[in-house]
Amino acid sequence: MHNIKVLVLEDNAIVGFEIKKRVEELGYEVTSSVTNYEEAIKSLKNNPADIAIMDIDLGKNSKDGIQTAQDAQKIKFLPIIFLTAFSDEKTMEKAIMGNFIASYITKPFTKESLAPALILAKTKLKNNIENKFIPIADGYFFDYENCHLYYKNNPIKLSKQEKRLFTLLIEAKGNIVSFETIEYEIWPDAPVSNSSIRTLLYRLRNKLNSELIETIQSFGCKLKIS
């Protein structure tokens, strides 16, 4: 599994920064630290995370963390660690509904409480994708764990970059993956030209039914999912 990426959603920016710092100290990458529902959903669409740490109470001007977590699942499967100051039974019952809930931490949090919660979330993520053959469309399916693509049981050989691009498209579940995300994920050490991204897409399309991948001009691309 690639390096685990974490989204932090906390309406108090100072607390959010502290969570980000602690998560990174534990060896995870933080995609972004945001303060409300809209920022969280935008971040997940543009720079997909694998796990999210979400405060339940995001203030009066935002949907709460529970609603955010539920809507996040429409973008991709995302294990959630809830961070909360609430301890009443009704709130906690509402928070733990859903198979995407990995754990919850009560405030004030500590690095020691974050570590096991992240391990639980990582395990939940792994269990969700492990040994799964994901049907795509038109007879194609993808072995997520081993990054192998098949067409009617026949393997299709992909380069390392093609595999990473296809994995990004699979993880997006038919949603758009921006060219910015593709560049960051495949060429993290140096910026590349648009022609490099177009060439990679061209090579991948040549190995597939070209209609499987749709390009959204000047923005990104997405995969046709059955």
UniProtKB/TrEMBL annotation:
InterPro entries linked: CheY-like_superfamily (IPR011006), OmpR/PhoB-type_DNA-bd (IPR001867), Sig_transdc_resp-reg_receiver (IPR001789), WalR-like (IPR039420), WH-like_DNA-bd_sf (IPR036388)
Domain Response regulatory: 5-122
Pfam families membership: Response_reg (PF00072), Trans_reg_C (PF00486)
Coiled-coil regions listed in the entry: none
A GO term from the CC aspect: cytosol
Chain residues forming the annotated DNA-binding region: 131-225
Keywords: DNA-binding, Phosphoprotein, Transcription, Transcription regulation, Two-component regulatory system
GO molecular function: phosphorelay response regulator activity; transcription cis-regulatory region binding
Gene Ontology biological-process entries: regulation of DNA-templated transcription
Modified positions (4-aspartylphosphate) in chain numbering: D55
Residue stretches making up the OmpR/PhoB-type domain: 131-225
Descriptive protein name: DNA-binding response regulator
Organism of derivation: Malaciobacter halophilus
